[in-house]
Amino acid sequence: MWTRRVVSSTIRIAGLLLTLGFGLTAVAAEKEAFVVLPDGGAHYTGPQGRTADVTELLSTSAQTGGVLGLFRQIIAPQSGPPAHIHRDADEFFYVVSGTFDFKLGDRIVNVTTGSVVFIPKGTVHTFENKGTQPAILLVGVTPAGLEQKFADWQGGDEETVKAMNKKYYTDVVGPPLKYPNLRGAARSTTSSRMASHEMERAFATTRSISVLSRLVPHRAPSDTAMLRP
């Protein structure tokens, strides 16, 4: 079943690439042809906070002469990146399985299995797996290069993530979609910092409540009844 799904996905993506006019025919004449069998790519977990997300690299800049980076991602339920911009690459997604919310500029669009999403460089975007099971995306970037970020930041901390985003021309401009009260955060650096501080306060409040619940003794119903006037 997985093989059929991969073959079907590959055929659809091939058609998309030809439609978008990336000139892969010319590149194929110059570069050596290659095949990646199911689960044949290198696998990398996400950075800290998203280690349940797994990226499988299918084609890299070195393999395609810088034309196309292609990778498959398994995204955990309710997971997704913060809102961001790629300054040097267009990006497209094919939803192999699952249901996602995609933020495209000011819009949030629900997309299901079989959908294709195209994101020009400079567009604010993010996504979130809306299901209760891991979902799969086939992702392409052109020109290639950005795909290597997922190998470089595997298991990385916040400073590593910042460094890799800078290296691969990516600007984080807002929170992930799983924080619905912050979806309207402005795209400036200042408001991005405000959103980050607001999330930190929310986490701190949650931790404080958890600590207090352990410190304050719980009374049995009979004790509570005895305290009533």
Description:
- With 229 residues, the protein is α+β, with helices and mostly antiparallel strands.
- The chain folds into two domains: 2-186, Jelly Rolls (Sandwich); 188-229.
- The protein is 34% helix and 25% strand.
- The strands form three sheets. A six-stranded antiparallel β-sheet has the order 1-2-3-10-5-8. It has a three-stranded antiparallel β-sheet with strand order 7-6-9, with no helix packed on it.
- Strand 6 (100-104) and strand 7 form a beta hairpin.
- The chain is globular, with a radius of gyration of 22 Å.
Shape by Cα distribution:
globular
CATH superfamily of the largest domain: Jelly Rolls
Strand content: 25-35%
Radius of gyration, taken over Cα atoms and rounded to an integer in Å: 22 Å
Report the CATH architecture of the largest domain. Answer: Sandwich
Task: Report on the biggest sheet.
Answer: 6 strands, antiparallel
CATH top level of the largest domain is Mainly Beta
Q: If you average the pLDDT, what whole number results?
A: 77
Structural class: alpha+beta
Quick recap:
This protein has helices at residues 2-20, 24-30, 61-64, 149-152, 158-167, 189-215, 221-227, and strands spanning 42-45, 54-59, 69-75, 84-86, 90-97, 100-104, 107-111, 116-119, 125-129, 135-142, 170-172.
Can you give keywords for this protein?
alpha+beta; Jelly Rolls; 2 domains; six-stranded antiparallel beta sheet; three-stranded antiparallel beta sheet; 11 strands; 34% helix
